[in-house]
Design a protein that fits this description.
Blueprint: E1 5-8, E2 18-20, E3 23-25, H1 39-48, E4 52-58, H2 60-63, H3 69-82, E5 87-91, H4 107-116, E6 124-127, H5 130-138, E7 142-146, E8 158-160, H6 163-176
Parallel strand pairs: 1-4, 1-6, 4-5, 6-7, 7-8
Antiparallel strand pairs: 2-3
């Protein structure tokens, strides 16, 4: 039997985004990497519901030489220490690299689905930008947008203000037998 999963964008969902001039940026230094309050508790709620918890994140700062793999690994270890994350998928490519993993392409989702035996049509994506939502829509996931001034998204299945509300939406779907 295939599993269900929730795919979590990192920056702006699990970790605090850095916003300048209404644009969101990923942290490039470990000291700037701060998790959202209550992230561990919320991810545990997803775990208790039986969902695989998979992070998928674009990190073009790696390709641009602004973020080292060691720093990125330390950020992800901090995240795993705080919350029961099963795996972190990273696209380190820049926009013009033409890879299949950079969101809005669904490459990270399909790779994870193969590895974890996930039914994407019964799974969820939680993100804060149009790229996250479009990646999820491309493979039939139920999509939940954390609305931000920079989200630029009109196509999400659900729109919420906080990560806790996004988790509530996932659990409500499960309770109703949807998705």
């Amino acid at each position: 039997m295939t599993r269900r999963a929730v795919f979590l964008d990192r920056d702006g969902v699990l970790a605090r985004e850095i916003v300048r001039d209404n644009r969101a940026y990923a942290p490039t230094a470990l000291e700037d990497f701060a998790l959202v309050d209550g992230v561990g508790e919320q991810v545990r709620r997803l775990q208790e519901a039986g969902l695989a918890r998979l992070v998928f994140t674009n990190q073009p700062e790696v390709a641009r030489g602004l973020l080292s793999w060691d720093t990125l690994d330390a950020m992800h270890q901090r995240l795993r220490d705080a919350a029961p994350i099963d795996e972190v998928y990273v696209c380190p490519h820049d926009q013009d690299d033409g890879c299949a993993c950079r969101k809005p392409s669904p490459g990270m989702l399909t790779t994870a689905a193969e590895r974890w035996d996930i039914d994407l049509s019964r799974s969820f994506v939680i993100g804060d930008r149009w790229r996250d939502i479009e990646a999820g829509r491309a493979v039939g996931c139920c999509t939940i947008l954390l609305e931000r001034p920079y989200s630029e998204c009109m196509t999400a299945d659900h729109r919420v203000a906080t990560f806790a509300e996004a988790v509530d939406a996932v659990l409500e779907h499960l309770d109703r037998g949807e998705a």
